[in-house]
Amino acid sequence: MASSAASSAPAASLERRLGLGRRGGGMGLGLLGPPADGAGPAPPMPGLLRLRCAVQHYEWGRRGAGSLVARLAAGDAGPGAASDDRPCAELWMGTHPSAPSSLAPDVSLRDWIARNPAALGRAVAARWGGDLPFLFKVLSVAKALSIQAHPDRGLAAALHALRPATYRDANHKPEMAVAVTEFHALCGFAATQELKEVLRTVPEVQELVGKEESRKLLSVKEQDGGIGVRSYLKSAFTKLMVAGEEAVSEAIAKLKSRLNAESKVRALTKKEQLVLSLEKQYPGDVGVLAAYFMNYVKLSPGEALYVGANEPHAYLSGECVECMATSDNVVRAGLTPKYRDVQTLCSMLTYDQTFPEVLRGVPVQPYVTRYTPSTDEFEVDRYLLPSGKSVTMSPVPGPSIFLVMAGEGEIQAGTMPDNTKAKEGDIFFVPAHTDVKLYTSGPRSMQLYRAGVNSRFLS
């Protein structure tokens, strides 16, 4: 568990704070509304709720104390709790049923929100059916994630209806990663000139793509652009991705041998170094060669990458905060032992060749930087609060989730009479229309991240 509610709180007080009540003589979830008998006023909306959040132990995650996810999840258990040698890949904060967050005593955040829709704000509740529209995560990446893309709404609904065991919901999944450490990724297709250079200088790729598809791409003129280039790129990329396992394995073996030999007489390019690294992680995988078709992106801490629907990408290494629409739909085609849906991926991609924009955020007040993507579901704020300083977030008409990444301090929210202690790994849900004031304590700066609904939608 990422964090837990204080066990010392009296049961009755805790029930009132969480909006829990007795119905028909049994304990159940109650609405934060007037009592059924009209005997008294509605209890106030809680200022904030401490969350318990789930860790996903995917094989590509970092392990033990080397994983930011593991350290955050250790919570009150202390540093020794991060010594679990399982890979700790993702920390999920939200309501997605694959790994829902919960409140004490064992009440899911999703159920609590369903019974307290005022916590979302009227516009959010109406637009997204009474559920939290975003999923907040921390990722600790030790080895490459799959080459993948996320479907748009129409394709997501179709895939979910066709294969619900694989595509578990019908929602789209635009996402944004904000780098906490140096972060590396593949994202989108490389420019035509770079692809031409690959076909000229990487015979192993040209062999699998085939002479005809290679000729088409090599003959494209830069000023042509548009549909013609995309058609040729789609045909060449698909030819590579559907190549037989034996042919792929043989091509990668040749590539590895050639690059190792050439490294003795020249410096390998960053893309060549990456390809050799991917080969060690996923021997014989077609994704090793697919990396040549994609943009190689490096983010410094505080920089962000937005990935829209139907765009190919693969996170490679580093740690980040990630926010997305509430979905777990992933179409994979390489660098993974999981189910691959190659034909779906190759048919769904936009084949856009624009280098992805690196977002650096916009200061919204002292110590606070905001990352605002083009989608309505979410935005992310990064708080870097020096020792002895405070900052106030004015009430917004939508919900928020706060994660304390480093340092310690106090949070005052809404009408709460007392401040709440906050330290590394603490996670809080803040209902709509709640003002929040953050204070640091101790010698260290406090680093927090807030996920909320896009301000443009709320304005």
TrEMBL record:
One Gene Ontology term, aspect cellular component: cytosol
Phosphomannose isomerase type I C-terminal domain location: 371-415
Domain Phosphomannose isomerase type I helical insertion: from-to ranges: 208-294
InterPro entries, sorted: Man6P_Isoase-1, Mannose-6-P_Isomerase, Pmannose_isomerase-type1_CS, PMI_typeI_C, PMI_typeI_cat, PMI_typeI_hel, RmlC-like_jellyroll, RmlC_Cupin_sf
Pfam families named among the record's database cross-references: PMI_typeI_C, PMI_typeI_cat, PMI_typeI_hel
Active site per the UniProt annotation: R332
Superkingdom of the organism of origin: Eukaryota
Gene3D superfamilies reported for this sequence: Jelly Rolls (2.60.120.10), Phosphomannose Isomerase, domain 2 (1.10.441.10)
E.C. numbers: 5.3.1.8
Keyword vocabulary terms for this entry: Isomerase, Metal-binding, Zinc
Cofactor(s) listed in the protein's UniProt record: Zn(2+)
Domain Phosphomannose isomerase type I catalytic: residue ranges: 48-189
GO terms for MF: mannose-6-phosphate isomerase activity; zinc ion binding
Cofactor note (record): Binds 1 zinc ion per subunit.
One of the GO BP terms on file: response to L-ascorbic acid
Protein's pathway: Nucleotide-sugar biosynthesis; GDP-alpha-D-mannose biosynthesis; alpha-D-mannose 1-phosphate from D-fructose 6-phosphate: step 1/2
Protein family per UniProt: Belongs to the mannose-6-phosphate isomerase type 1 family.
Protein's recorded name: Mannose-6-phosphate isomerase
